[in-house]
Amino acid sequence: MEQSLFYAPDIQPDAAAYTMNEDTSKYCIQVLRHEKGDSVLLADGRGHRFTAVITDDNRKRCSVSIRQREQMPAPSPALRIAISFTKNASRIEWFLEKATEIGIQTIIPLVSQRTEKEKIKAERLQNILVAAMLQSKQFYLPDLQEPQPFEKVVNSNDPQKLIAHCLPEQKRELHQHMQPGKDTLILIGPEGDFTPEEIQQALAKGFEPVTLGNTRLRTETAGLVAVTLMNAKQREL
Amino acid sequence: MEQSLFYAPDIQPDAAAYTMNEDTSKYCIQVLRHEKGDSVLLADGRGHRFTAVITDDNRKRCSVSIRQREQMPAPSPALRIAISFTKNASRIEWFLEKATEIGIQTIIPLVSQRTEKEKIKAERLQNILVAAMLQSKQFYLPDLQEPQPFEKVVNSNDPQKLIAHCLPEQKRELHQHMQPGKDTLILIGPEGDFTPEEIQQALAKGFEPVTLGNTRLRTETAGLVAVTLMNAKQREL
């Protein structure tokens, strides 16, 4: 039986003890039935892995004593995706869960001309990221940023910049074109794609056009395929 | 405005005319507001692409006259995935939708020792495959087979056979190990993984162990990553 992993967003790196918030305490004590003396793991979402022992199995304020702290290696190079959020919230929430499981460092809600969703429910989405991080046994929480306009994102200076669009122009397969070992940003457009002007703007800024395959993918599927291929590409090193 | 694509499962390859079923007729006439004289596309799910013109815009029995038939190239080599269905139906339904969008030819519900879901709602799942095929503008419907026991699947003689498991044994990255150009079958286990006995059985039958990454993936996520990487690998040819 492997150890349970809980989220401790506000734990200090040098903490000797920690008290879980009410939700986490309830999950730990009531749902998972942990008791005083049980050994558990804590993640602060910033790469620290804490081994702890339950000292008070209070279902509202579960306290633990920290026995060990480990700094996990940061995912490198960094993968960033700027993706136009879908009108249908469940589709993008599904994307956030899966992208976190597979491994992504930064997610930027991209507001392009044809984007239909410009606001996000930050707290709700944050909870989805946390659950996926814990579920996939990771210790770094992806950075979900505030929505940003296309004009701002297109000016970012990531070492490797890619754009996946649907115009029948010269494009190369993402997994064949991308160079591993470089911090990378990819842009994924809305249903209805980027406008030709946006695509030209991106190319002028040094973004390289890539294709994700031969079928027409929904936005959230395109995002997932991009994260999967970029992540696999980085592991080739 | 691109042409609407509708499913015509029972159309004859040499048909001169066709009448849509009630659901499709309603969708075509009431929802999409198509009228007599409009040109539409039909897919039979077996690779035929029909160009047709609406001759009777009846919202219950929409009839069309076939103007052209095209045989689309079959996806080759074939990708087959045998995956243990999840207890939570929505997770595997999501997998079926996405795997179809990205491109998969055969899906086998795999019943292994730790599989918690042995029955499937064939009709409901079939509808999900059809919707995803049309949405992604494809003309071949994936073959969703009846659930099969591990013992039967492990005896299949696909040219390339892979198994993704979580035991810390020697494994290579799927996208680096897989050879493009070969019909391929991959096995994806249940939450809780295959049993060591099942893994040994598969290896003895010539299945090669592969890893899908460094994080711990849910069953449906592992399936999606596998389909994405296999599909990309085949396009390297």
From TrEMBL, chains A, B:
InterPro entries named in the record? Alpha/beta_knot_MTases, PUA-like_sf, RsmE, RsmE_MTase_dom, RsmE_PUA-like, tRNA_m1G_MTases_N
User: GO molecular function terms here?
Assistant: rRNA (uridine-N3-)-methyltransferase activity
What keywords does the record list, in alphabetical order? Answer: Cytoplasm, Methyltransferase, rRNA processing, S-adenosyl-L-methionine, Transferase
GO terms (BP aspect): rRNA base methylation
**Listed GO CC annotations:** cytoplasm
Keyword Transferase, does the record have it?
A: yes
Asked if Coiled coil is a keyword of the record, the answer is no
Compartment annotation: Cytoplasm
Q: What class of enzyme is it?
A: transferase
Q: Which reaction does it catalyse?
A: uridine(1498) in 16S rRNA + S-adenosyl-L-methionine = N(3)-methyluridine(1498) in 16S rRNA + S-adenosyl-L-homocysteine + H(+)
State the EC number(s): 2.1.1.193
Q: Which family does it belong to?
A: Belongs to the RNA methyltransferase RsmE family.
Q: What function is annotated for this protein?
A: Specifically methylates the N3 position of the uracil ring of uridine 1498 (m3U1498) in 16S rRNA. Acts on the fully assembled 30S ribosomal subunit.
What is the protein name for this chain?
Ribosomal RNA small subunit methyltransferase E
Q: What is the lineage of its organism?
A: Bacteria, Pseudomonadati, Bacteroidota, Chitinophagia, Chitinophagales
